[in-house]
Protein 1
Amino acid sequence: MPTLTSLVVPAVTIVGAILVFAVWVANRKRIAAETVGRAEEQALRIGRDAERDAETRKKEALLEAKEKAHDILMNAERQARQERQQSAMLEQALGKREAGLTERQAAIERLEKELNARDRAVSEREKSAAAAAAKYEQLVATQQRELERVAGLTADEAKELLIKQMESEARHDAANLLKRLDAEARETAVDRAKHYITEAIQRSAAEHAIETTVSVVDLPSDDLKGRIIGREGRNIRALELATGVDLIVDDTPGAIILSGFDPYRREVAKKAIERLIADGRIHPARIEEVVQKVKDETDEAIRKEGAAVAFELGLHDLHPEILRLMGRLKFRTSYGQNVLAHSAEVARLAGIMAKELGLDAHCAVRAAFLHDIGKAIDREMEGTHLQLGIDFLRKHGENEAVVMAMAAHHMDIDWPSLEAMIVQAADAISAARPGARRDILESYVKRLEKLEGIADSFKGVSKSFALQAGREIRIMVESEKISDEEAVWLSKDIARRIENELEYPGQIKVTVIRETRAVDYAK
């Protein structure tokens, strides 16, 4: 029979095993719960990270979409602005053309009135001539009968004597008439020429701007000067090599200076530098790429500029190569004067004067507009700008009358036509106008100053004023020191002094003004 001890030991063992098992189960449940909690926490963290990542990508996508929309909007606005500018230019050209058509219609109406008046005058002259012929026939018959009665001449002898007498009288009257007409023509020719030239100048009031040899590029900050120069000066050397322009980077705040005698190269360099600054990438490879792109865009703008000026002048059938060369003259100067602006002004002056004189205005305008076309290529090819221009126009099928009129504008050949004389006169007017050229402007100002200085040097002169571009000088004298008789002699002395010391075209009117004033006050 088992003992108590033998029963208790297995029972304790079993209870211990149960307790160990229970502890082990509880420990596993706790570990499983902790694992599940960590997994849930990690899942929540991963979910939050995913939400933040999705929000960030969403914002980046939205920002990129906004940037693309902004670029599209800016491109659309720029294109719309360009189209508005082109529309404005076309409207302006159409307005000028409409004004020209209106003027032409008015001229045609005036011409019709003049022709009607001439027809009436011719009819009246025919009637007068018929009456005079009848009167002369009657007189001839009477004289013939009288001669036959008095001299006993035959009809043939009397007729021959009468014809000789009438021929002698007609020659005498014709000589007197020719002499009178020649005198009148000489008297009125100068006045009419002055009238035509003055009318043309007044109707073609063009602005003059003297071209300089430097351009300035504004910088957002002085820090960009170092980037433009580049490491060991490689960027600035690349810019100068690509553009042919000298870059002056000095202490001038917020700017660099481009120096060069070719306005085309300065314009390309200025646009290229501005584009590089805006882009931010400044290195030799990028510089070459941007400069080439700017050159291509500038060449296209040049062609459009030449076409726009030709359209404004009513020249619609010029060869595209001619238009391209004329556009290049925008970046060509002569004595500081812009050659394209000068050519357009000469064309307007020639057209107006040709219309006033009843000549071929279209031929005159065309030849005047193209007269300096050789200056667009005279730096690249051998020969004078005149010969280069003649060869180029003939090569591209220009009318021979236009070529010859253009060829005579420097009077190197005999005048081939009246239109050629008009072109030469218009060219001289445009070049000689004060302010058109730098050297002419300076000499013009110096002549006015010397003219006033001569007058001020005389005793008794209080003030002098040069008027009408130096063609008249008015001198105010002190009435206490100069009498009326002395004022007369003073004007003669000043005129003689001007003749001896100054060189000037035409004549200068010297007016001496002596004024006496009595002033009192009512108190």
Protein 2
Amino acid sequence: MKDRDSQYGRVQQKKKTGRINCSEWSYVGNLTKNIIYEPPMISRGNRINFGDLKFPCKYHDFVGIYGRNYVAQTFQDEFQKITDENELLKRYESGERKIVFDYKACITEGEENWLRHGMLLMKEKQDMIVISYVKDITEEKIEEKNMKEHLEKVQHANKEKTEFINRMSHDIRTPLNAILGMTQIASVNLDDKGRVKECLEKIMISSNHLMNLINEILDFEKIDSGMLRVSETPLNIVELVYDLTDMLKEQSERKFQKITVSMGQIRHKFVYVDELRLKELIVNVLGNAVKYTQEKGKIQISLREKRAKRPSYACYECIVSDNGIGMEEEFLPYIFDPFSRADNVSGKILGTGLGMSIARKIAWMMDGDIVVNSKLGKGSEFKIYFCLKHAEIEDVEEKKKDPPWENEFAAARDLFHKADFRGKNVLVVEDNALNLEIEAEIISSMGAYVETAENGRQAVDKFRHSDLYFYDLVFMDIRMPELDGYQATKLIRDMEREDAGNVPIIAMTANAFMDDEMMSRKVGMNDHVTKPLDIKKLLDTMEKWMSVK
């Protein structure tokens, strides 16, 4: 009895010093005599039950019943090994005085909790005593798991961003190097028109690729931040699919690939949609098929209409399949993650790793999704789903088919020859000297007389002191010192002169998103032309607004 009282006195002392406070339950065992004198001290509300076990009882029976009844199956072997009296005696002899281990236990049926089991070893006269305490650490483990998962996500994101920056450094420098190199080659071959033309063609190809890289990064940022706005215009979705296929035809023909198009039953050809975003969605997938399919490969795109759940809406399934390089199964869960690229293509083919992430988010915006199946070395299949509102045929304007230009230089030459703005006066407002020179040269080459202003303040002064109706058109940059384009436009519109309210003011800016265009129109601008300049778009805009006084 004295031994027992002494042992429980030790427990009380440990509790006072905080060593075994906050425990769910605790017990004291005499390992030398293989005995537990008293039932365990169990906290209020705890459901641990040792059944018909009578105290005092053998220590071995006590821990055996608890282990079998409450310790989770996967931890039972470890629990029995650590709590074995002979194992504890060995540990004490080797110098251990405190043993702590964690395990899962099922105290309440259907629930699994994490417990921390602490064992203090000490000598009491000739006997080896163990004082054990068990604490519920489920919340601590959950928090630890959440923190670990969060840390892993942060580390994964940081790794992906680092890889993205490194890849972008390479991918951006590659076309930039071509632009600078071809410019230098052209500069020393000015007398060789053929060589200069070849250099200019390569500069154009590299410039377009560089622009595509930048657009992907900007689009992703807009979509990811929720700032992307979409418009809805009526169009023929069947024609759009054929147009996109034609757009990639030259690229695929360079690799001797065959692209086939098939149309299922389409009941609603005419729909309201943001044409730019739908094109971006399909081109991201179809463009990848061309990019990652080897020479003489086969690519198929099909479109069919599916049953829609909402009235006045049509749902579509667009399938893009190829027999290209495919992807490893392990990569498929990450294909839509930003910055991710498969190991079998990373470094070999230029790209941001953002295209598929952008495509899926656009599909989500259209109440759809993208599903992918792929096998390494066999090819890939992408199923694109999206839903759009019906449009009537009379809502869809007949589109003028652009001529199949041999190349962009031929297109530019024809456009310049077509343009004739003699007798027209244009004010170009731009703070970048090189851009101002380029814009003025392009517009004056179309026959117009061009005046320039280096900021919004100069533009307002020039317009204020000009003759009535002198300017037929004003091209206005947005980001400028002194006064920006928005402020300058407001001041011009507020002037008390006849032409201030109706002179066409066109934003000519690198602010290329829809909300930028909406802001331009809100302050009184008539139209929006983005940089880098598309000559055809510039010409169409000038023709549209020069005819309006």
Protein 3
Amino acid sequence: MIHTIKKAITVLSLVIFGSALLYNCEPDADTLGEQLFLDGAAQGNEVSFDVTAYNINNNDSIRSDASKLTYGVLGAFDEDQFGMQKASYLTQLRLSTYDPDFGANAVVDSVVLVMKPTYASDSITTNTVDDNFTYTTDADGTVNAKKVVNTYPVLKFGKAKRTFHITVNEVNDFLKGPSDSVKSNQVFPPGAVLGSKEFKGSISSVAITKDDGGAALFTTTAPGIRIPLDKTFFQNKIIAKKDQPELQDASNFIRYFKGLKISVDESDGYLFQFSPNDMELIMYYKYDKTDVTPATKPQTTYTFALGSANTHIGQYQYARAGSALGSATIGDKTNGDKKLFTQGMGGPSIGIKIPQATIDELKKRYADNKAAIITAKIRIYTDPSWKNGYAKPTAFTFLQKYIDHKPNPAKTLMGFTADVLNLAGANGYTIYKSYDLDKDAAHYDFVVTQSIKKLIEPLTANSVYDDKKELLYFRIDMGSFQTNTDGTGLAGYKFTSTPYNTSRAVFVGTEAGNVNRVQLKVIYGTK
């Protein structure tokens, strides 16, 4: 999958200014400098340079609070390269109405938590589980019907055919506010078990249709995992607190009922994603309706709010002992690391430094031969050790770390690369391209043309480069950049899917003699 940015980034005025200049002077982002070759006016040359590629240790931790989680992750996965990764999820819940009136003598019948994982909508299995189903409606009474179940496989990363036991616990600690920063390795002790569910990797929706004419009588809103919870707990925790301060307002309630933790009991299987804001918690109960004769006991429901107003936290655990990563060289910025490991959700990242000798050589070629850079890419290959049948990654972020010399004192910052800032929105521009994803040695080309030109070519009056930024290294992470709310560009370099990206891969690093080692590929033109 090639991630192409189709619209200009609007986070800085430099983006618009830089893109405008590029449109005026370049025919196309993928043919940058092509005019040098028109009518045989120039000669193109391709040359490869070694770089220093190394692992960045993130201490198996990342921000995973509500502001970072478009999706939650649940499950566990253990394999020999990265070891064990386990993901749990914590959330607050709020009352949909405060100071609720449940009616006289309310009694809870059942409580259900509904999770809605991402699933393969085109892989449906339909089963009629009951041809002689009887359904009762207020209008028609008893109706002859059919009960049909549609089943879909959940999208997974890992060993697909495993059974999980999903457990829901009460949370004992206050989960902070939804805008507070929380790290993925922060521990919130679980309390009482409220419910559990055996999960075999697929989800279902139910439809009930009339025998006569096939009209739908009932359909579930979306396929999901329905986890039954302890009705006695909710009778005592909610119904019994009617008219009490605990149910009077949000502040009281989230400190009284602090939240839920959802986890799996197992330590191996797969990881899957779900939407936190689409979760449902429904309490079914009866009460005495005494304003009619004779008195009745109607069943009704109360729905708790689990959406964006609440704190959501991804809690991730790792066990690296015995894995390749556990014994790998990490962070050799001088010589580089032979193997590179990158993993979402707080796992390691990849750093790539351009050696000063390479910069000096390119500068010399420019000075001696007017060797203008047309294209520059960092090429990285997957390592043979990542030959396991798991899908190759298709989403990366690519950033640069630099020293900004404009302020006094200078600041070390992370941000978008010069290519993203100056080429976003240009026709055909991509942050990277992927090749041979169906082969053992897949490779990826990360575009660094503008970043390298900035290092090599002297500034001119019309230059789009900022000469106050000193490049330190490039950084590669699993995940993709997120767009802003109106869809006109990227939300910013800090807004990515890395906190919930389940992918990982091993790459060839800085290894002398390996033809697939990480290299800088430069095409330049000379007159």
Protein 4
Amino acid sequence: MQREMPSAERSRLSDSLLAMACCLLHLVFAHNCLSEEPRFIDCSLLVAPEYPATWPSAPCPRFQIVHERTIGPNSPYNIDVLLIDGNTGTQLDVPPHSVARPELNRPKSGALGLAYTDKIEAWQFGGEACVVDVRDLLDQAPKGVSPLVRREHVERFEEQYRQLQFGDVVLFRSDYSDKYYRPFPEGRRYLADVLDRKSPGYPDPDPDCMEFLATRGVMTLGTDSASMGPLPDLAEPTHYAGLKHGLIWTEGATNLGALPSIGSFYCLLGPKHEEGPYSEGRAFAIAGGDLPQRLIESCLQKRVVDLSPTLSPKLPITSPGRGTGNHRQVYLKIDFLYSPDLDMWHHTHLMDSMTGTHLVPPSFALPTEGEVPAYAPEVRGWLEEYEKAYGPRGTSDVTTEQVPLDWTCGRVRVIDVRSLIGSTSQKTWPASPEITPASIQAHEQANGKLKPGDIVLFHTGHLDQHLRPAADDSGVWSDPLQGKAEGWPAPGPDAIDYLKDSGIRCVATDAPDLGGVDPKRAIMTYWALGSHEMVGVEFLYNVGSIPSDRDAYFLFAAVKIRDCHGGPGRAIVLY
């Protein structure tokens, strides 16, 4: 006769089998994650004049893009000018948005009142995305009033997943921007109708929720609402409750539903404005494979190198051009609203789209398909020479917002070309030492072959040496362009061809640009980049701080501006 197993024993066996099954499922899940290719998830709103990208109340300026020059007799390039406020599209808030400077000795004064966008440590921009689902709050409030995200919503997340901690990026997902960020007139529902009390407000945390997150050690947040400030009267209290603890956050995120609840890497990168209390930015996440955890760990351990110079009217961060009348729009800070509590002017910027660290998309130097540019005679001659040597110059309509995020992020390969400095004869100036395939091959012989997807970064040292305020600023652009000094090392079209054959999509430099000071070689380099569907990242510095003995990962993203032929952004390296 078979003995019946006691109920307690059956229970222990059941629990043991359940634990083994969970362990097995976890191992299978982990294996699948590690073997999965990483995927990039864009969490940024499109910035364009017909979208509700800016705060609609007077006197806040509206976003504008001006196509100042197009490819033709006056320019072989498409050149844009931007009027862009830090509160545009997907954006970054830092403590001085609500914390007053310490010397003011006001109730809200503190050291964090000096933690502007050019001072915040870059490790704080990223971390593990923890997506707190608050979709049940969407539209659940009277007109003009925000439904409040409370600490209970965060605790609900913690009960389901794990306790929040330092290094997490807490993202409040309501799907508000997904639903309401639309071209006008529908786009009024995103913000204007809320302010006019015609529609319910966007969900946002209350001050107590902010205080609770601070106790968990969280330093970075995000919301897919138009602001982190609940309407009608908790916007400033909520901002201050978080910012006084040194928190920073994303406003105007989107597509948070594409992220797993935990486990992906999230970051927001934006231009590094001098004394900026906020900044336009580009938010994205990486999910799948082992890459997210590597990047999360780098941010957690603060292993980061910031490669972007500060944007300031005092610095030579835009090209003066070759010859009179060919300068780009200088970077201007324009005050429009005074905040007496902070003794601070809110401001916007008028700037060339290639100010400071920026993207070079294929359409910068290429016409669209079917377009036959009326080049100047000299440029027509250069084109004939180029096509004879390298084949047909291509066409492209790929502007900044169309460039995939994974084109400008990847393992960085720093190629030191400083040995080329001084290799030109003064009688040939203006001239730049040319980076050739031989320069790249020498690096490969010492460090291994380039791999598809690597970000090739040419280390010239030019900006580290010459980036200075006026009147000591001529070494960056003016002297090399005028033939008073040697130009910075720059790749020629042969080097671009070689990199394309190696599977490289993105070429970067710590020089002012990838073209160099000779206009003929410059346009040929940009024709080669565009024709091969490659992109550039220009105007980096501090490249020498990237550890040569560590597996370093380059992250760059330009602000998602529609029809832009440049694109300001921020570049960092995690290692």
